Amino acid sequence: AIDISKLRDQSGYITLDPGFKNTGSTKSAITFLDGEKGVLTYRGYAIEDLADKSTFLEVAYLLIYGELPTKDVLEKFRADIRSQMMIHEDMKNFFAGFPSKSHPMGQLSCLVGALSAFYPESLNPNQTDEEENKMIINLLAKMPTIVSWIQKKSLGHPVVYPKNNFGYIENFLNMIFGEVNQEKTFDPVVIDAMHKLLILHADHEQNCSTSTVRMVGSSNANMYASISAGINALWGPLHGGANQAVIEMLEAIKNDGGDADKYLAKAKDKNDPFRLMGFGHRVYKNFDPRAKIIKKACDDVLEKLGVQDPVLDIAKRLEEAALSDQYFIDRKLYPNVDFYSGIIYRALGFNSDMFTVLFALGRLPGWIAQWKEMRDNKEPIGRPRQVYIGENLRQYVPIADRK
Ligand code: ACO
Questions:
Q1: ipTM of predicted complex
Q2: What pTM was estimated for this model as a whole?
Q3: If 0-12 CB within 10 Å is exposed, 13-18 middle and 19+ buried, where does residue 352 land?
């Protein structure tokens, strides 16, 4: 008889690293991060410089093609994207089918995956560079439009079409907050904060959603399908869903009397599953360099918009208390980028269930760059192993004899 336990023991060594805490899955030339020192670079450029001096599309180009674009190249890239922002009218049928309160992330993953139906040439794994570029432009151009349609549907409002004379962020915000015959303009502080937010989220090496994009793409699945899978991975509250979870946690604390210390104690109680959302990071164990930049943008936006929000007072109290609490100090738990991003999005008027969709919009160039790198490097299909701990070989029991 087959002895599974013996076979298992003879099957050679398997590296077991649950959660891949210390396992590299690839060599990559895109993003470098040092969690101890709080360093993050895209293609060798410091995140602080990029957030301060570049636009989101400039950074998208850098991540995807490896170099900062010249003025002419950037203008063509922008023009190509602007020309493809419309989505096929038949996509409206998908929107019609969703219940109006369905979560935006579910809608987004479905609609991005559905793009492959409208661009069937994407199914060919041996595409030319030109065909691949078409997918890249399509995704960068159409995702803001899809996101804005999701928002409009949730309100029962008619969609606002993209405008050819608007910048990328201005177009997006107008499609979200403008009306059909009433364009909306935005304070430069708001536009700047949106560029920064998207830039800071644009890539973060082999995190859960990016690894998913590479893993799905490694089977030669098309780029739309791979990114749709990444969107689903991002949805969870331990990853991209944290920005929504932060605001919901702050709301819950407010509705429970506003006692931040009570929730701090809950977070430290090992018998309580509650965690302080927006604190801690798998890789950053000193501080999250993105959080530093976004905290400043957050202060600027709140001051400019004159926002008074009791939820923000709770956020401040939590931040101060956690930073001086031994439990958080010992475990090197600091506010991450999502502690602040949700606060800005809320101040701008986004519903909390749209926050993770905005994260996805920012992460899109990173997913594209990582998918492209994986293909360009002709990486093998991803296929981890396991250590089997189940039953040894068992005698099959016919249904009539089972107890
Ligand atoms: N609140 C309270 N305690 C925490 C928290 C938290 N937010 N995060 C970690 N801890 C504690 C753990 O209970 C554990 O304590 P122990 O050593 O006494 O058992 C210790 O800190 C280490 O935690 P791990 O879960 O092992 O850390 P890991 O690296 O696996 O998890 C994660 C990182 C998932 C981000 C975690 O810190 C967390 O759940 N944070 C809240 C969710 C969140 O903000 N996610 C956003 C991540 S950023 C992003 O996706 C862009």
A1: 0.93
A2: 0.91
A3: middle
